[in-house]
Specification:
Layout: H1 3-10, H2 14-26, H3 28-36, H4 53-73, H5 78-99, H6 106-111, H7 113-116, E1 121-123, E2 126-132, H8 138-141, H9 150-155, E3 161-166, H10 175-192, E4 200-205, H11 210-214, H12 221-226, E5 230-235, H13 239-246, H14 260-267, E6 274-280
Parallel strand pairs: 3-4
Antiparallel strand pairs: 1-2, 2-3, 4-6, 5-6
Helix pairs in contact: 2-4, 3-4, 4-5
Length: 281
């Protein structure tokens, strides 16, 4: 894999592509040196987080050249590799739209650890990650958050192999796309991880929170997406929802061209929270 081919496959917008290429070509030796220790650090305090936004994006892009070979070594087809890598260009585009600058956030750097560890795959509309079942409850994290029944924890024990499901911003959640994504994911993990017997798809998300879902239209893609899951626990933590819907945690200002979901959250934030859902396999 060469840089020009990678850049073509990432589908960066023009300004972002030019800025990243210019920075790499200006001093590739320095970029390579920074890349060597970019993901060193404990508790997600990676060295790369301390760099400027453009440097963060440039280093992540540069590291994708190596990660391509690691994904290929696992037998992953190019179509899935590049779909997975385009999460970088998606987040770079969102950052550019929000700030007018080329780069990515510290949070993006931390999230991309999954790509750096070659443990996330974009398959159709959704991202999937081999995972071990975790319960975000007092027993696990040391403080009350979500409560799960003993029966549920016996049925799907902590540590059991599951496939963690992630939803990118602006993901196509039409029923047809979601169904195809789950079906393709089952085939993918059976083919590439045949030694593991996955017990369920797992999803922790505000999109599954029952009080919100109940108030959505029957035609809502979110409502139909949530219907795929059995919700096994929830809490009224609306932080993830308000960050997504408003770009911050409070939701005190309604955007000029607000969506119906933003209007619902603005008027009834008590309907929004966080939930854990599973789909048995």
């Amino acid at each position: 894999m060469i840089l020009e081919t990678l850049m073509s496959e990432l589908h960066y917008i023009r300004d972002i592509e030019q800025a990243v290429l210019q920075k790499i070509r200006k001093d590739e030796k320095l970029i390579n040196e920074i890349a060597e220790t970019a993901y060193h650090g404990e508790d997600f305090d990676f060295a790369l987080c301390k760099r400027m936004p453009l440097t963060r994006l440039t280093i992540v892009t540069y590291l994708l050249l190596r990660k391509y070979d690691e994904y290929k070594a696992k037998g992953i087809p190019d179509s899935i590799i590049f779909d997975t890598f385009r999460d970088v260009s998606l987040r770079a585009k969102l950052y550019y739209k929000k700030t007018g600058r080329v780069g990515i956030t510290k949070g993006d750097v931390i999230w991309f650890r999954h790509i750096m560890n070659v443990v996330i795959f974009k398959i159709g509309a959704l991202q999937f990650q081999p995972f071990e079942m975790i319960y975000l409850d007092e027993e696990t994290i040391g403080e009350p958050y979500i409560t799960f029944t003993k029966e549920q924890k016996v049925a799907l024990p902590a540590g059991a192999p599951v496939i963690n499901c992630h939803i990118q911003e602006n993901a196509d959640l039409s029923p047809q796309s979601v169904k195809a994504s789950f079906q393709s994911a089952k085939r993918f993990f059976s083919a590439h991880f045949p030694a593991v017997q996955y017990k369920a798809f797992l999803c922790y998300s505000w999109l599954l929170y029952p009080p919100m879902v109940k108030n959505l239209s029957q035609r809502s893609n979110i409502k139909q997406f949530a219907a795929n899951f059995s919700v096994i626990g929830s809490c009224n933590d609306s932080k993830q929802a308000t960050e997504y819907l408003f770009g911050h945690e409070t939701g005190k200002v309604l955007p000029a061209n607000a969506t119906s979901l933003q209007e619902l959250a603005f008027e009834h934030i008590e309907l929004f929270g966080f939930a854990c859902g599973i789909i048995p396999i």
